[in-house]
Description:
Layout: H1 16-22, E1 30-35, E2 38-43, H2 48-51, H3 65-84
Antiparallel strand pairs: 1-2
Amino acid sequence: MATATLTSKGQITLPKAVRDALGLKAGDKVEFEYVDGRFVIRPLNRSALELAGVLHRPGMKALSVEEMDEALGKALGEDDERIRAGR
Length: 87
């Protein structure tokens, strides 16, 4: 188990084993989330290459930018209509 010491300024240095396991390097950001009485630490810095395909759904065709714009406009219009109707 890796441990760290809290400084008087509330800072810690993540142990090398933790940095290596999370793929962290100097300047990277991390997120802390409180889940079921424990904190979970997640790296926030990801390159676009690491994210490639993350939204892919087998069997669905890729949309063009124009198709995405049209779908977004439709969704925003429906949202606006719903909000104005007080639903």
